[in-house]
Write a structure and sequence with these properties.
Blueprint lengths: L3 E5 L3 H13 L3 E5 L7 H7 L3 E6 L5 H11 L6 E6 L4 H9 L4 E4 L4 H15 L10 E4 L2 E4 L4 E4 L2 E3 L3 H12 L5 E2 H9 L7 H15 L4 E4 L3 E4 L5
Parallel strand pairs: 1-2, 1-3, 3-4, 4-5
Antiparallel strand pairs: 6-7, 7-8, 8-9, 10-12, 11-12
Helix pairs in contact: 6-7, 6-8
Length: about 230
């Protein structure tokens, strides 16, 4: 079954461009021209895997619609907000009302389609349109096949051990990993186990990817921070 996506945008050309992109990637695509509450029933009836809301500059209609959709008990769709508004308060408000992801413009088409595919795969692996080892958290895409990390349009380079450590955390964002678990998974054995090695690698990852991405759980280990933090 094809993954289904609803694109919600006031701008006809933007909607057409997005529809064309997602069709090429194997989605079944529907367009809705206005991010208003009057379209909630229509979106619900379509039962999409992803609702892709374009947030216009200076507007909050998409955030309001996201809030209304997330209040619907039967709404199981992944809601993504797509916007050029880089202000932190806008993104925090989006996550506050229940957005599953906030994608910042500009972003190249290949990366955008890969992010959406990865989100679907994470939500329901049987519907994923890519079999690659791609994971998404907040606005970061990590691809184990190519050993690449993308934050928006920025490519981030990490040494292999740092990459494997971050990939481990991405595989289960809710889990708190002990230093012992991390070392055993990334280094394969505990023969030369030293917890300080983990701390150093986490510090280096924070320096390159973002100092708020990984939380330290005192006395236990590490965990990815919650979206929006």
């Amino acid at each position: 079954m094809q993954p289904k996506i609803v694109v919600v945008s006031k701008f006809r050309q933007n909607a057409d461009d997005l529809k064309s992109l997602f069709l090429k990637e194997g989605f079944e695509v529907f367009s809705v021209s206005e991010p208003t509450s009057s379209n909630i029933e229509l979106i619900n009836n379509l039962s999409p895997d992803v609702v892709f809301l374009e947030l216009e500059h200076g507007g909050f209609d998409a955030i309001d619609l996201c809030y209304q959709l997330k209040k619907e008990k039967k709404m199981k769709s992944f809601v993504v907000i797509y916007s050029s508004q880089h202000e932190e308060y806008v993104q925090l408000e989006a996550y506050k009302v229940g957005a599953d992801d906030f994608i910042l413009k500009p972003i190249n088409n290949r990366l955008l389609s890969k992010k959406i595919s990865a989100l679907i795969k994470h939500t329901n692996p049987l519907k994923g349109i890519s079999k690659s080892n791609t994971l998404v958290f907040n606005n970061i895409v990590i691809d184990r096949e190519s050993y690449t990390i993308m934050r928006g349009t920025e490519k981030i380079e990490l040494p292999k051990k740092e990459f494997e450590l971050l990939y481990l955390l991405f595989k289960n964002p809710q889990k708190i990993y002990t230093r012992n678990e991390i070392y055993k998974s990334v280094w394969d054995n505990l023969d030369n186990y030293n917890p300080r090695i983990i701390d150093v690698h986490v510090r280096k990852i924070r320096e390159k990817v973002g100092d708020t991405l990984i939380n330290t759980v005192k006395g236990v280990g590490y965990q990815l921070a919650k979206p929006g933090y």
